[in-house]
Amino acid sequence: MKNVVFYFLAFLMMACTTAKISEDGFYGEAFKQKKHIDFSELTQKMNSVDSLNTVVKGKVESVCQKKGCWMNVVSEDGESMFVKFKDYGFFMPLDLAGKEVIMNGYAFKDVTSVEDLRHYAEDEGKTKEEIMAINQPKAELKFMASGVYIPK
Fold it and tell me: pTM for this structure?
């Protein structure tokens, strides 16, 4: 019985921490967010390199609606970047779309499989027809965030 109570309380604590913006605005590891580049600058830098450790600011387009385990960030000129979180160690609030974030981590180029693209489309709440229309892998810019700051 003690184990059941312990696991219930642990689950409840995890659910509460992912449902709201933390008091200091950080998720994952805290970092110095003042020295960041804008996402549009990152896309330019990534034209000449395959990967880059950086702190970048961008606008959230969408968030995984199942538990906040990934997000898409977009630039003003329409470029997008798929963001996951280091070691699956933290999640974003589900209502983060449209807000700006500052992220610390690692940008890189990668190809996403059809299977993964369909999985992410399902997480996003797309229709069965939209999901099945995905039939090509996608070369894209990705980011592995060790920390995310949400300005208040």
Answer: 0.80
